[in-house]
Here is the input.
Amino acid sequence: MGTSNSRIKNEAQYEALRAKGYSEEMSARIANTPDAGEKGGKAKDYEDRTKSELYSQAKKVGIPGRSKMSKSELINTLRNN
Here is the structure.
């Protein structure tokens, strides 16, 4: 399908997320994070991160309600949005 929106920083990541079923909005949020595509699959598992690290990631991708979430809720939301 593709997008002609030049505001997408990492077009390949955006398209891959859309192919996985992510919404246009969530795909764009993730693809536009400052470190989009830099980790190359070497990021720590969510369970190995601190709640603060998870909160920061949720903030980067624009997850609403993150300040009231527990660590397990942050993990679930990051995985499923």
